[in-house]
Amino acid sequence: MNESFKSGFVAVVGRPNVGKSTLINRIIKQKVSIVSDKAQTTRNRILCVHTDDACQIVFLDTPGIHKPRHKLGKFMDEMAYQSLQDIDAVLFLVAGNEKRGPGDLFVLDKIAAAGVPVFLLINKIDKLSKGDILKEITDYANLYDFAQIIPISALQGDNVDTVVAELRKLLPSGPKYFPDDMMTDQPERLLVAEIVREKLLLATRDEVPHAIAVYVDEMKERGGKIYIRMTVFVERESQKRIVIGKNGAVLKEVGRLARSEIEHLLGNTVYLDIWVKVRSDWRNQASALSEFGYKNE
């Protein structure tokens, strides 16, 4: 083993909608986690791999820790907590443009129990003045003995390279756990479903995004194209109407946007066949959660 090569596992943790997936995508330099301005966009723990000549960092992109209101929410919190086991460091993300609340302190308590170095990343500094950034750094420094406090903009890329460089210094010498070209452990079917769910999150409103699940029923090559049949599940008929839109306009636009991204992912022409069905209260049904991929391994 090359003693100078570093490797390790790093959990990325924070409240919902603080920019965890945006940061991961920026580091990996490829979209491996969907993003939206809706809270709780990430539902599963997603393993993402950064490899360069000096290190391999395996990031665990976690759902935002929150007070669950249904079984899906409980599953999401469990995924985040499990990610704090057997790791080398934690990236604790907070939104610098939002007032610190009990949710941030609750997450910090959970992180502290992991007993590993914690990097505080104050995100969204593109929306802050220098004075505001310094105040955030000072306030958080009084709360916990962080290994590093780094102000960043995951969206703009500010100081993201610094995060990787500081992690590289901290991680132990170790092997490559995954091949150089591997960026995520998510199967293509799940990535495809998540792309469609992201477009639906962007196209819908109110409680509809949280009630959406996307399941790929069939994915195979037909006549040189990849045929993908998938079902979008919602919990009420009113939500189904919103997802479809007047004369199917919303679903058509979602399909158009998703198709382009999926074709880039798969490297082939894609035909999307999207259906919408109602499955009442699926977020509280253990069988539905397991079917849609929300299950503990």
Characterise the protein shown here.
The structure is a single chain. By secondary structure, this protein is an alpha/beta fold. The protein has two domains: 6-170, 3-Layer(aba) Sandwich (Rossmann fold); 188-292, GMP Synthetase, Chain A, domain 3 (2-Layer Sandwich). It is built from nine helices and nine strands. It has helices at residues 20-28, 71-82, 102-112, 130-141, 160-170, 188-203, 237-244, 249-266, 286-291, and strands at 6-14, 46-51, 55-61, 89-95, 118-123, 148-151, 213-222, 225-234, 270-278. Residues 123-126 are annotated as: G4.
Salient structural properties:
GTP-binding, RNA-binding, single chain, 2 domains, small ribosomal subunit rRNA binding, globular, GMP Synthetase, Chain A, domain 3, alpha/beta, three-stranded mixed β-sheet, 297 residues, Rossmann fold, KH_dom_type_2
Lay out the secondary structure:
Layout: E1 6-14, H1 20-28, E2 46-51, E3 55-61, H2 71-82, E4 89-95, H3 102-112, E5 118-123, H4 130-141, E6 148-151, H5 160-170, H6 188-203, E7 213-222, E8 225-234, H7 237-244, H8 249-266, E9 270-278, H9 286-291
Parallel strand pairs: 1-3, 1-4, 4-5, 5-6, 8-9
Antiparallel strand pairs: 2-3, 7-8
Helix pairs in contact: 6-8
